Amino acid sequence: MVGTLTPPYYAVIFTSVRTEGDNGYAEMADRLAELAMNQPGFLGTDSARSGLGITVSYWKDMESIRCWKAQADHAAAQRMGQEKWYASYSLRIAKVEKEVHFPPAT
């Protein structure tokens, strides 16, 4: 789980339903996680899967998100996702203006 971030920042919310089988998904997911960590403006990620997968990545600004979308390996993974990894997905981008934690950060 991502620790405390200083708003404002952006959240890219990716919800998905996977197709059957791995089909190279895990390897690509590991590769993209490594690449994202080195992408300018990347702040972190949270993820959960239980039938419906939810991944939220956090970014400094919209320009950082645009650059990540255009990154060559990420663009290839997007195509693969549509072709074989996802039965369906949704992507939402939101500006985070406030965050609250429990227990409160010290």
Low-confidence stretches: none
Total beta strand runs: 4
The overall number of domains is 1
CATH architecture: 2-Layer Sandwich
CATH topology: Alpha-Beta Plaits
Textual characterization of the structure:
- It comes from Desulfovibrio subterraneus.
- By secondary structure, the chain is of the alpha+beta class.
- It has a single domain, classed as 2-Layer Sandwich (Alpha-Beta Plaits).
- It is 34% helix and 36% strand.
- Strand 2 and strand 3 (52-59) form a beta hairpin.
- The longest helix has 14 residues, at 72-85.
- The protein is globular and about 45 Å long.
Topology of this protein?
Blueprint: E1 9-18, H1 25-37, E2 42-50, E3 52-59, H2 62-70, H3 72-85, E4 86-96
Antiparallel strand pairs: 1-3, 1-4, 2-3
Descriptors:
Alpha-Beta Plaits; four-stranded antiparallel beta sheet; 106 residues; 3 helices; alpha+beta; globular
Structure summarized in a few sentences:
Residues 8-79 form the ABM domain. The protein is of the alpha+beta class and 106 residues long.
